[in-house]
Specification:
The chain is an alpha/beta fold. Helix content is 34%, strand content 17%. Among the domains are: 208 residues, Dimethylsulfoxide Reductase, domain 2 (3-Layer(aba) Sandwich); 113 residues, Barwin-like endoglucanases, CATH 2.40.40. It contains 30 helices and 32 strands.
């Protein structure tokens, strides 16, 4: 193991360029950007060929977001960021043994995340032996032996932790959880723990299912669409097409977010230029610029007005809900003054929005991390559900809840068993299908895993995709914890910072990407994924593998299963024919009957969703439940600010494709903090000045220096900065109630003046 290191992203010294904020999303600039990223990484011919296969019925599922595909598809079923993701995966496998001979771990730690990603695909299994400064080549057999030896040496199964990224296919994820549970533990943290865990908890307790309840076609039937705490123009660009179509069909769209986002102002589909349509579509009818953390107050204000004016669906409430009277009683103590103060929205605008909700016969509420990553993440989503239940907007065409997932298969991974806290019913079904007993005790989520590493209670950490170090909070603390582990294993396509902050020993296992041909048992295989709206469909790679030394994720898991628990399943037979994996899934999972046949249907199939399909709610009462919540304390001390983390436009989760945030007009440097101009003036700051940041939580302080200040349209008292750079300011112990999700959208910070910049553009 190298000397202990902090693992934070190096300070960015690149020159900062600022341009005008864009008024229209997508359009020609998006088309040009898509092509440029592709051509730089794949060449012209391969770019055109590849992009025409993205999200097609006989092609591969985009490795980007989880937005569903329309039944009737065009030739261009990809967005700008999807094109970047595909081009990124199609790079040459240049990160080979010679690369690791050239660069030591120490040298690589000094490189930016953007630089690390640009080096190309991982080409060969690599090992970092204890005390060494460089990775070196290792055979697949030796790598598997090393993992099996380390796992077998554990005193108890709980000393192994097995993380999963949301890009893992259903087949790989199912085998992975079967393997881990075969070992005797539910230590299966995943990226959901850091994003939509709050959604799952809130929806499970209110409507009896931890998923959304809308179809894609519901957007065409909706009267009102609420887009809350979400930036679809950057994070879910294909959603903009659905919003455009909804708008053309008469829907009103409300954007509720601290930042105005270009994607919700005007949108132009690039394909329309080919049809000589030069007009763009205004999407949002109203931007509600809520303060960070003020969403609960806003929604309670809407609910208060609806109750006071008797603007609710009494028949739906009487037949399908519980605790309505308790909600009415609770709202008698509601304070308009506090709602206005906490939300930053005047009473008249709250009432205006409430009246739009009252007039709507079909309302969809969409949200993402802007709601989930708060201490009250679960309860604020319950308030959203309260609002929809008041109007009967569940199980109705054009209406429902729509938590928008970021990873391409994060919902599917959870559906097939990637979860540290499985229900008894799920485990019973799995035992019937698998034929062996599974552990019942809940395992570690992400935050608990880091704490266990801190306490030296983890011997083996396996990371199936993703970039654990950069995705998690409190970077220095997480890095220190990871270095306490005996063996860390990264199953990856691209080099990232998690390969550089390791246990005493470390392995990198390179895998096939979603875009690549997967041949097992002399036959081409396909995998399946589940989108944000519960549709399961196939995905078959079409590109030649970047390296002949790559294995598929199902094959890696199967080989480990064969070496560790050969008696439990015919592991190698399963990896030779993915149909056999799907047969096992059919026998084990609710809603997966005749899986092999149904997934071969043209558009896949829809998983059961009782609230949506039958107005049935799998709650203790059999009814949907109104939630009773007090407003969170959003007060901070004088001189402090609330900071939220966010993505740039040239970014997919922790992967940095480029150094531009085109819509926000920020280029070249990512170490920036967006700040209200009045706050800047009060603190003697101007744009391009540098500040040092300190985050505060229960007496603990985290410091991060040399951030460039940019004046931006953000509520007074609020700030925003990019992750993963700002993750070092997010306290590990600051988590959402019930879901344990890190509060990356509520970081209390103070500022001090930093060093003067030597050069200004």
């Amino acid at each position: 193991m190298q000397e202990p290191t902090e693992g934070v992203t190096p300070v960015d010294s690149n020159p900062l360029r600022l341009s005008k904020i864009k008024k229209t999303a997508a359009g020609i600039p998006a088309a040009i950007s898509s092509l440029n990223h592709g051509i730089r990484k794949m060449g012209v011919v391969k770019t055109v060929k590849t992009l025409l296969m993205v999200n097609q019925k006989e092609g591969f599922d985009c490795p980007g977001c989880a937005w569903p595909d329309p039944e009737h598809r065009t030739s261009f079923e990809f967005c700008e960021n999807g094109a970047k993701a595909v081009a990124d995966e199609a790079m040459k496998a240049n990160v080979n043994p010679n690369f690791f001979k050239k660069y030591s771990i120490k040298e690589l730690l000094g490189k930016s995340d953007h630089w690390l990603n640009k080096q190309g695909r991982l080409a060969h299994p690599m090992v970092l032996k204890s005390g060494n400064s460089h990775y070196e080549s290792i055979s697949w057999d030796s790598a598997f032996d090393m993992i099996a030896e380390s796992i077998n040496a554990m005193d108890v199964p709980e000393r192994g932790v097995f993380y999963t990224s949301g890009r893992t296919s259903n087949e790989a994820a199912f085998l992975y959880q079967a393997l881990v549970r075969s070992l005797g533990t539910n230590n299966l943290p995943d990226c959901s723990n850091m994003c939509h865990e709050s959604s799952g908890k809130a929806l499970g307790s209110t409507i009896g299912i931890g998923k959304g309840t809308v179809h894609l076609d519901d957007f065409n039937k909706s009267d009102l669409i609420l887009v809350v705490g979400q930036n679809p123009g950057t994070n879910h660009p294909r959603m903009l097409t659905a919003l455009r179509d909804a708008k053309r069909n008469g829907a009103k769209i409300i954007n509720i977010n601290p930042l105005p986002e270009t994607g919700l102002s005007r949108f132009k589909h690039p394909q329309e230029y080919m049809e000589m349509d030069l007009t763009s579509t205004q999407l949002a009818d109203m931007h509600i610029q809520v303060k960070i953390g003020g969403d609960a107050a806003l929604f309670q204000g809407i609910i208060k007005h609806l109750l006071d004016t008797n603007s609710y669906d009494s028949d739906f409430i009487d037949e399908h809900t519980n605790q309505f009277e308790e909600l009415k009683s609770h709202m008698k103590s509601f304070s308009w003054d506090r709602a206005v103060e906490d939300s930053g929205i005047c009473k008249d605008d709250i009432i205006r929005l409430a009246n739009m909700c009252s007039d709507s016969k079909a309302t969809i509420a969409c949200w993402a991390m802007g709601l989930t990553q708060h201490k009250n993440g679960v309860s604020v989503i319950q308030e959203v559900v309260n609002l929809l239940l008041l109007g009967g907007h569940i199980g109705r065409p054009g209406a429902g809840v729509c938590p928008v997932r970021g990873h391409s298969n994060v919902q599917g991974d959870r559906t097939v068993g990637i979860w540290e806290a499985p229900s008894d019913a799920f485990l019973q079904s799995m035992e019937i299908g698998l034929g062996f007993e599974l552990p019942k005790a809940h395992g570690y989520d992400v935050v608990e895993s880091i704490r266990a590493m801190e306490e030296e209670n983890v011997d083996v950490f396996v990371c199936m995709g993703g970039n654990f170090l950069s995705a998690t909070p409190d970077t220095r603390r997480t890095a220190k914890a990871l270095q306490n582990v005996g063996l860390t294993v990264q199953i990856s396509t691209k080099l990232n910072r998690s390969h550089l902050i390791t246990g005493h020993s470390a392995l990198i296992l390179p895998v096939l990407g979603r875009t690549e041909i997967d041949i097992q048992g002399s036959k081409r295989q396909f995998v399946t994924v589940e989108n944000s709206m519960g549709v399961v469909h196939r995905s078959e790679g079409k590109l030649n593998p970047a390296s002949s030394s790559l294995m598929s994720e199902p094959s890696i898991v199967s080989e480990l299963g064969y070496r560790l628990v050969p008696e439990n399943l015919p592991w190698r037979e399963l990896s030779d024919n993915y149909d056999k994996i799907r047969t096992l899934m059919s026998n084990s999972l609710r809603g997966f009957d005749n899986y092999n046949q149904r997934v071969r249907q043209e558009n896949g199939f829809l998983l059961p969703n009782p609230p949506r399909d039958e107005l049935k709610f799998e709650t203790p009462s059999g009814k949907a439940v109104f939630s009773i919540n007090t407003l969170p304390d959003v007060s901070i001390e004088n001189g402090q600010f609330v900071l939220m983390t966010m993505r740039s436009h040239d970014q997919y989760n922790t992967t940095i494709y480029g150094l531009h945030d085109r819509y926000r007009g920020i280029h070249g440097n990512r170490r920036v903090v967006l700040m209200n101009a009045l706050d800047m003036a009060e603190n003697g700051l101007k744009t391009r000045d540098t500040v040092n940041l300190e985050s505060h939580f229960k007496g603990s302080v985290r410091k991060s220096n040399n951030w460039i200040v940019i004046a931006y349209d953000i509520p007074k008292g609020n700030m925003a900065a990019y992750f993963p750079e700002a993750n070092e300011l997010v306290p590990l112990d600051s988590v959402a109630d019930l879901s344990n999700t890190p509060t990356s959208k509520w970081v209390v910070v103070s500022i001090s003046h930093g060093q003067e910049l030597s050069e200004e553009e």
